[in-house]
Amino acid sequence: MSSPAEFDGAARPDLWWRSAVVYQIYPRSFQDSNGDGIGDIPGITSRLDYLAELGVDVLWLSPVYSSPQVDNGYDISDYHDVDPLFGTLADLDELIAQAHTRGIKVVMDLVVNHTSDQHPWFVESRQPGSAKRDWYFWRPARPGHEPGTPGAEPDDSQAAFAPSTWTYDPRSGEYYLGIFSSAQPDLNWEMPEVRHAVYAMMRWWVDRGVDGFRMDVINLISKPPAFISGEPLDPGSAGLGQIANGPRLDEFLAEMNREVGLDVQNLLTVGEMPGATIEVARRVTDPARRELNMVFTFEHVSLDQVDWNKWHLADLPLPRLKQNLAHWQDGLAQAGWNSLYYDNHDQPRAVSRFGDDSAEHRVNSAKTLATVLHLHKGTPYVYQGEEFGMTNAPLTQIEHYLDVESLNYATQAAAAGVPEEQILRSLARKARDHARTPVQWDQSPHAGFTTGVPWMGVNPNYRQINAEAARRDPDSVFGHFQRLIRLRHTDEVVREGHFVLLLPEHDQLWTFTRSLGDRVLLVIANCSSTPAELPPGALPNLDQAMLLLGTHPDSAGGTLAPWESRVLRLAAD
Ligand code: GLC
Ligand code: CA
User: Fold this and answer.
1) Most CB within 10 Å of its CB: which of 183, 248, 277, 422?
2) Distance 324 CA to ligand 1 centre (A)
3) So what's the pLDDT on residue 444?
4) Which residues contact 135 (CB under 8 A, 6 or more apart)?
């Protein structure tokens, strides 16, 4: 039995986040409490017992701050308040308190590479001579061009969700930078006042009881020196490549850590870092440098594309995926720490993407994908609905898509002459909307998400795939996630064991060992929809191995069923 101390959700022992499992909530789609069709904070509080039953240690809330909602809250107009869509500050205080009572910590999303264009800082910055002018990046029109006319943007760089990173403001006749969209102007972190305003805001949240921060695109805060000194950005997507991982990134993160007391207070910190290499991640997460606990890499979720463009689809053979994760395990083995994820609010559903979401294989492929991920070394992240195998949505027409990223892609691709079938194929595979359909709680109308009209349609498969059905069935994906989470909590080898990938070229089997002293775990997973033979002699001796967790408990021997996985404890020699 756990001691009461373990249920003190507000206590933060040293390195507690290394044994934690984090659950991400996208509030808009989690649970509506007032019938307006939009998930909200009281809705989350009403589901805390479910999350406690699952066994997770931490909730990460995607943004609930005041926001015009151009990018569903990743455009913040007031960092110190909750958007009325989601409730009130008092509701959030109550959620934090109720989570802590259940031994669950709460991590806030922190979006400080940019604000909303409605944020008072930006409103002031728009005034040409204002004291906050340089809190953002302003540039004159391209030489020889009339400001505000087509082609007069300072350079040809493209925003992530818009044709240009530059937006014209007639008030001054200048342009401002928005790497994502014109509704999300980039803050200028070169200004000490900007940094200190952000740190003060973070301290305010820590004082309110939050246990850490997930930092949105945090490796974009230090911009390249050439850009700072006024040079144009290269054409093509500002895509993060040329803007990410600037020379002052480590300095800013270390300063933030010091000024907010991130390490001193044992807060969980995870930096979202598109374009970060292992080398950057190693630096940022090396405990000696006191920057962040861990980062979200994008490498493994960029393997099924070409040209650094998520819409340019490519097949993904298993060896590439497992070798990439292994590469990160090796890269951060000596210093630093990994985060482990497939799913979040920006990615299509893992079971549809890396597994097989057919009726025949959905359950076992969701379980086996989870087994593999959760048995790696690092902190696993579960995204709402992943724990019972939610799938991509059947979105078959452009009109079905709501997300700013998808709509911008569809418009630009159509203008460039890409055939509609191809656009729809890319969207069906990669759109962020797949992750954003409402959580399927039960069989009731709208899957129990709302009594009103949901802001986004519920996936019609909710009658078969829902949390209630999964909770009742011990063989469900939900039951499997519970067992994986428990195993991490109880087994030190799962938390700290050294990782070695076996059979790196095998195109069906994902298999590896974890070892700590003389204790060894072996994971064998068939990541395919056909049976797989264990190659004789290629794996450690399985005589006397003990099955800790499997998808097909009655099976043994040298053939794995489709999507079968086993976690074995090997006998010590
Ligand atoms: C991050 C968020 C994404 C958002 C973008 C801009 O990638 O996860 O949802 O659109 O940053 O804030
Ligand atoms: Ca609501």
Assistant:
1) 183
2) 23
3) 98
4) 121, 122, 124, 125, 187, 188, 191, 193, 194
**pLDDT class of 99 with cuts at 50, 70, 90:** very high
The response to whether residue 298 sits with its C-beta less than 6 Å from ligand 1 reads no
CB 118 within 8 A of CB 70: no
Q: What integer pLDDT is reported at residue 4 of this predicted model?
A: 41
Instruction: Find, among 534, 538, 537, the residue nearest to 524 by Cα.
Output: 534
Classify residue 250 as exposed, middle or buried by CB count within 10 Å of its CB (0-12, 13-18, 19+).
Answer: middle
Beta carbon of 71 within 6 Å of any ligand 1 atom: yes
pLDDT in tens, 216-233: 999 999 999 999 999 998
CB 29 within 8 A of CB 37: no
Helices and strands: H and E segment counts in the chain: 16, 24
Please state, rounded to an integer, the average pLDDT across all residues of the chain.
95
Supply the pLDDT for residue 20.
98
Rounded Cα distance, 154 and 167, in Å: 10
pLDDT score of 540: 87
- For the question of residue 216 being annotated catalytic, the response is yes
From 118, 296, 300, select the one nearest 217 (Cα to Cα): 296
Angle of CA points 254, 282, 296, to nearest 5°? 85
DSSP E strand boundaries for 453-533:
498-502, 509-516, 519-526, 532-533
3-state helix, strand, coil in the chain (%, to 5): 35, 20, 50
pLDDT tens column, 133-170: 999 999 999 999 999 999 999 999 999 999 999 999 99
Catalytic: which of 190, 272, 304, 433? 272
The ligand that comes nearest to the alpha carbon of residue 111 is 1
217 lines ligand 1 (CB under 6 A): yes
Of residues 185, 60, 190, the one with CA closest to residue 113: 185
Using the Cα atoms of residue 483, residue 477, residue 341 and residue 102 in order, give the sign of their dihedral: negative
Provide the 10 A C-beta neighbour count for residue 407: 16
In the block, which residue shows the tokens 């976690």? 567
User: Is the CB of residue 533 less than 8 Å from the CB of residue 559?
Assistant: yes
Residue whose CA is at the smallest distance from ligand 1 atom 4: 74
216 CB within 6 A, ligand 1: yes
Q: Rounded to whole angstroms, how far apart are CA atoms 478 and 92? A: 27
Q: Kindly list the protein residues that place their beta carbon closer than 5 angstroms to ligand 2, a single-atom ion.
A: 32, 34, 36, 38, 40
Out of 180, 220, 381, give the residue to mutate to test ligand 1, the one with the largest number of ligand atoms within 8 Å of its CB.
Answer: 180
* pLDDT per position as a tens digit, 322-345: 999 999 999 999 999 999 999 999
Question: In angstroms, what is the span from residue 85 Cα to ligand 2's centroid?
Answer: 6
Return the number of other C-beta atoms located less than 10 Å from residue 200's C-beta: 12
Distance from Cα 180 to the centre of ligand 1, integer Å: 8
Q: Is the pLDDT of residue 7 over 90?
A: no
pLDDT at 553: 80
420 is catalytic: no
